Amino acid sequence: MSKQLLQGNQAIVIAAERAGLGFFAGYPITPASEILHELVGRKYIKVMQMEDEIASINACIGASLAGLKVMTATSGPGFSLMQESIGLAHMMEVPMVIVNVQRVGPSTGMPTFPAQGDIIQARHGSHGDYFPIIFYPNSVEEIYRHTFSAFNAAEESLSPVLLLSDGYISHLYETVELTNYPVVQRGRPPLGAGNRHFTGLTHKDSCPVTSSPEVHRTLLAHFQKKCMQTCANYNFYEYIENDTADTLLIAFGALSRAIYNFKDKYGVFRPIRLFPMIEELKDFASRYEYIVVLEMNTGQYCYEVESLLHREVELLALPGGKIDIKEISDKLQELRQASSKQVTIN
Amino acid sequence: MEDTMRFKRFLKEENLPTPWCPGCGNGQILKSACQAFEELNFDKRQVVIVSGIGCAGRSAGFFDMDSVHTAHGRAIPVAEGIKTANENLKVVVLSGDGDLLGIGGNHLLHATRRNTPISIICYSNEIYGMTGGQVSPTTRLNTKTVTTPEGNKDCPVNVQAIIKAHNCFYARSTTFHLAHLKKSIIEALRHPGLSFVDVICQCIVNNGRRVGFKDAFEMLMYYKNNYKINDNTELLKENEIGITRWTSA
Ligand SMILES: Cc1ncc(C[n+]2csc(CCOP(=O)(O)OP(=O)(O)O)c2C)c(N)n1
Ligand SMILES: [Mg+2]
């Protein structure tokens, strides 16, 4: 075992290499570019700098079907370009890891400032129905560990797995214990081994079936089932109980690091696997009168929490790349005062 | 099996018939590709077929080899990923003119620059066939289509120039000149770098009939009369088909 001082993006690269990465295709974008830089020149990893992110994810699809473990890395603008082919990769059951180091959007926004504005895009950005597994760690040590999780979950589910980061976590330096976590190998034979037809069309047994609702529904059920089965092994979250508190705070990624400051007054829940959502949250949430989701956007995960819990959830929206403990503390106080006023009026 | 039918071993006959209209030229290209594979004695487990989206894009589903039917315009980067991952595979792209030169045009530009050793067979029916006959990047000047009722005012893409600019292999043929088409595909498959075969093919339903052809046969006769074979040139003229000369740089 060895400890090393690493940047978040470097940690992703070292973990990916140890998890068996064989191919990377990408296009430069801050704050994800260090991943591309660090991968160049490694002996067993083929690296292609493509003409854009669309080419990158499609080259990854090809290389993955050809038998290699593959990864691409980008930020919001590039992630938007990849969306159509993310759906294709789900439809063709192509394992891969997609890293999205979030920055402030929409559009070019505030490059290099951290954001959490791609939560909905990560879950729902492609067209049609699909069931992505999405991890979002909050430290360099954790992103190292969950890069392994992402590769393994991709192999187990034969689907693209998203590893979310943000400009803060990816550029942070922390010491990491370079543990060799177990690695899942590919079960399916590579291209050249048979007469299979991988297609984005609805299909059954390697054959397009484009006019049967039953076949389509069966296919979606299959996707959902293997996603849920895989997730049972990747149920990652952090929960800090506070039995004197009436409010549970929910946060993830960079922002969640600030929330630990409030654990004396609040319960804290931090999903590491954002999707599929952590079922245990239902139980934890039932112990509190109020639920507040804090996120660096104008409310994206908040709606997901609301629909999981079937109850009202408050939002503390912090877009624009700023994490300020004093601001958060003041705003939390305001929220509580507002809702206690409501209680007395009622 | 009769020798002339041996190409059929590359087809998944149980998936036939194709969804293509009566008179369509795509089947001839599919067959010519299989004949070229047969002539080169390819091992089915060493070839991977990649297609994009469109009528031509359905080609991948009819081969008895591993095949990938990608998103619209994305056959080339998928093929490059496959080839880069496993250079022992022969990777062949079969797709349409709109797919390869329109929505996927940027990928072609950069794949030729990288000279990735893949073979690309372009079904150039000069129209967006599958979506109902809209103008495509290869539609000739002044041609009437669903979206150019007054005639196409934009210059068709000079694909030969793009391919040759990066010193890749370029051949042009038609679905009338079947012996030449087969030979073009064979030479493309033998080429060590990126090769491109531009196949002019008839789409009677969504193109030909709108510009005055009575049937597919008339379109083929037009190819016969209009195109002269020239296999001994650096650069083909507009009314020529041929396998252009290639010299390693
Ligand atoms: C991203 C995207 N845009 C549009 C379409 C609709 N579409 C399907 S096929 C096609 C045109 C294909 O034309 P071409 O490549 O020339 O093939 P052909 O049908 O003529 O053989 C289009 C625009 C699509 N499937 N995906
Ligand atoms: Mg076409």
Percent helix range of chain B? 25-40%
CATH class category name of chain B: Alpha Beta
Instruction: Estimate the strand proportion of chain B.
Output: 15-25%
CATH superfamily of the largest domain in chain A: Thiamin diphosphate (ThDP)-binding fold, Pyr/PP domains
Poorly predicted segments of chain A:
none
- Sketch the major β-sheet of chain B: 8 strands, mixed
Order of helices and strands of chain A: EHEHEHEHEEHEHEHEEEEHEEHEEHEHEH
Count of the separate structural domains of chain A? 2
Number of strands of chain A: 18
Order of helices and strands of chain B: HEEHEHHEHEHEHEE
Supply the CATH superfamily name of chain B.
Thiamin diphosphate (ThDP)-binding fold, Pyr/PP domains
Distance between the termini of chain B: 43 Å
Oligomeric state of this protein: heterodimer
What's the Cα radius of gyration of chain B?
17 Å
